[in-house]
Amino acid sequence: MSNIPFQTIDWDTIPKTEHKGETGTAFWQTVQHEGLRTRIVEYSAGYLADHWCQKGHIVHCLEGEVISELETGEAFVLKKGMTYIVSDDLSSHRSVSKEGVKLLIIDGDFLQLKITK
């Protein structure tokens, strides 16, 4: 991961890319640095992710609410102002949004699982 100089992000200038879920659609605005990805992600109403994700994330809910389902059967509701954090390979999770949601998602090399002895 390289050093990132001070910068601001005007999200109004970042194009949205469309990503279909099993149901619904996700719209991503992505700023990519070496080893670090920062996104504003909006899930449409009725969104269900089309895969179980193993990647680590820091997810902060900006608007609405999202359910993070774990493959173990657990589910966690993230509402406006709440955040969850998980490292790579520590859970198999997917997102569900009944009414739609807007999230700030940060992920990258710093979330890789570190084995300590």
TrEMBL record:
Lineage summary: Bacteria, Pseudomonadati, Bacteroidota, Flavobacteriia, Flavobacteriales
Q: What is this protein called?
A: DHCW motif cupin fold protein
- InterPro entries membership: DHCW_cupin, RmlC-like_jellyroll, RmlC_Cupin_sf
SUPFAM superfamilies hit by this protein: RmlC-like cupins
Q: Which organism is it from?
A: Flavobacterium hydrocarbonoxydans
Superkingdom, taxonomy of origin: Bacteria
